[in-house]
């Protein structure tokens, strides 16, 4: 592992798991911004490895990843859910 | 992860059970699923079906009742040839490399034959028959103009991962009427500079089609002694599907999600070998996650409402803490996971897990998604050697401890 942390359990408030902050990555993969060196890359630095734009990255937590349309809803509740990265 | 864990008073013997997980078995499973014979395990492919068959065999060897459950999947984006992109300006030509320099935009029209045309800025009045260079982040508007004018296609910008790859996706927004190609951001800027300096000609193809196919979930139930019907109903899930190989380029999909599958399989092996763990345990190895979590959407509606779901998506590289997202009535399940993490020494934090867990939560089930890292995410660099043994062990122990604690809580 790349961590030296030995104590387990939640860091922070457990309840945050019900509304986690957007990690900026897809499917648990942390965001990997480009090694930005010019303006265009810096503008894209908050985009994720998979999402092509800042807005897509920002929407990834609430909507389908990377502009992906959600799969057909099986129930009304499901319509608010998303697909996932892909 | 080699230290002996302290036992919990309420779960005597659980620490010893947790320590039975085998890194060697999990690594072997990861290497197996990353083999060329599975071709990246894309939904509806012979490789994907071979992976499902292999997993079914593994589960049967553990004594499970196994079912292969098929369902239709539409709108899968299939790259069926290697695309071409090159430009010439000022007497010099530049040929670009797919997935390093440019990549398919998922809204692209299928454009198998290379087309050569002059390049135009998106703001120009006449775009007919020309490739259009969209401003970064403005591909949709450029696309509308390109379609209205009968342009050759659109070039937009996209970043790369830390290793310079442009990850592969196989589902996306509605297909447009023109080819759309995403160019690496620095090359996009360079192309804009070239256009500002003089005429540019672009030759490009994008052989990406939209197909319908069938997905195949692998469901297993373990009717071991004291198990079925006598404890909490727990489902351990992980998707086995990958994005599939490119023509001429392997995508081993070791982290996403052979690693998660390996950890779930190992957890099931350990739990079912322990007669003291009184849980009604099921396992789902899911297809079609990469195309919008269709496999879990299909499965979720058929599950009893008291099913507790733990979905693992990525168990390859624990960095600081595993990401956890909860949905549905999962408060007790989440508290149990926290307790299991303390027992096993796995740090957790709230983090977005846009994976199959959301499908289960969406139908009202208590569902938790866990992510423990995906080095090389959906690129050719997602190789089995990058899947960390310690992370696999941590993930599998966390699952075993969670189910063990759930069983204890239900029985008291």
TrEMBL record, chain A:
It comes from the Bacteria. This is Uncharacterized protein. It comes from Nonomuraea pusilla.
Automatic annotation (TrEMBL), chain B:
It comes from Nonomuraea pusilla. Residues 217-401 form the Peptidase M28 domain. Pfam families: Peptidase_M28. GO terms for biological process: proteolysis. This is Peptidase family M28. GO terms for molecular function: metalloexopeptidase activity. It comes from the Bacteria. InterPro entries: M28_fam (IPR045175), Peptidase_M28 (IPR007484).
């Amino acid at each position: 592992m790349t961590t030296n942390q030995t104590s387990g359990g939640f860091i922070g408030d457990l309840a945050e798991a019900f509304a986690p902050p957007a990690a900026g990555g897809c499917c648990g993969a942390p965001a990997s911004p480009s090694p930005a060196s010019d303006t265009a890359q810096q503008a894209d630095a908050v985009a994720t490895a998979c999402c092509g734009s800042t807005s897509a990255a920002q929407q990834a937590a609430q909507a389908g990843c990377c502009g992906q349309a959600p799969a057909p809803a099986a129930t009304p509740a499901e319509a608010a859910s998303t697909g996932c990265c892909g | 992860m080699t230290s002996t864990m302290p036992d919990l008073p309420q779960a005597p013997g659980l620490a010893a059970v947790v320590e039975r997980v085998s890194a060697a078995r999990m690594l072997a499973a990861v290497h197996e699923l990353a083999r060329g014979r599975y071709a990246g395990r894309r939904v509806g492919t012979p490789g994907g079906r071979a992976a499902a068959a292999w997993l079914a065999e593994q589960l049967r060897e553990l004594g499970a009742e196994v079912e292969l459950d098929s369902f239709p999947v539409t709108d899968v984006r299939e790259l069926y040839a290697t695309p071409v992109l090159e430009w010439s300006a000022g007497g010099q030509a530049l040929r670009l490399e797919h997935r390093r320099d440019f990549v398919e935009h998922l809204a692209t029209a299928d454009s198998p034959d290379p087309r050569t045309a002059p390049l135009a800025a998106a703001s120009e009045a006449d775009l007919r028959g020309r490739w259009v260079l969209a401003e970064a982040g403005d591909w949709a508007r450029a696309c509308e103009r390109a379609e209205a004018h009968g342009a050759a296609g659109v070039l937009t910008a996209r970043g790369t991962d830390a290793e310079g790859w442009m990850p592969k996706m196989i589902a996306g927004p509605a297909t447009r009427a023109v080819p759309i190609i995403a160019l690496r951001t620095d090359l996009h800027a360079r192309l804009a500079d070239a256009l500002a300096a003089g005429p540019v000609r672009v030759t490009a193809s994008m052989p990406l089609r939209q197909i319908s196919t069938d997905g195949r979930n692998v469901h297993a139930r373990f009717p071991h002694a004291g198990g079925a019907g006598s404890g909490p109903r727990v489902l351990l899930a992980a998707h086995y599907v990958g994005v599939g190989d490119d023509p001429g380029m392997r995508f081993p999909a070791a982290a996403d999600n052979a690693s998660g599958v390996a950890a779930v399989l190992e957890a099931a092996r350990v739990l079912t070998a322990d007669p003291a763990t009184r849980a009604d345990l099921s396992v789902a190895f899911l297809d079609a996650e990469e195309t919008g979590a269709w496999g879990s959407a299909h499965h979720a509606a058929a599950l009893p409402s008291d099913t507790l779901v733990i979905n693992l998506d990525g168990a390859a590289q624990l960095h600081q803490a595993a990401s956890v997202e909860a949905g549905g009535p999962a408060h007790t399940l989440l508290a149990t996971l926290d307790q299991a993490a303390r027992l096993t020494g796995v740090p957790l934090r709230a983090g977005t897990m846009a994976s199959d867990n959301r499908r289960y939560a969406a139908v009202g089930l208590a569902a938790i998604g866990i992510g423990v890292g995906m080095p090389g995410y959906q690129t050719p660099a997602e190789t089995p050697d990058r899947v960390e043994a310690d992370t696999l062990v941590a993930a599998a122990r966390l699952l075993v401890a969670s189910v063990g604690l759930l069983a204890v809580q239900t029985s008291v």
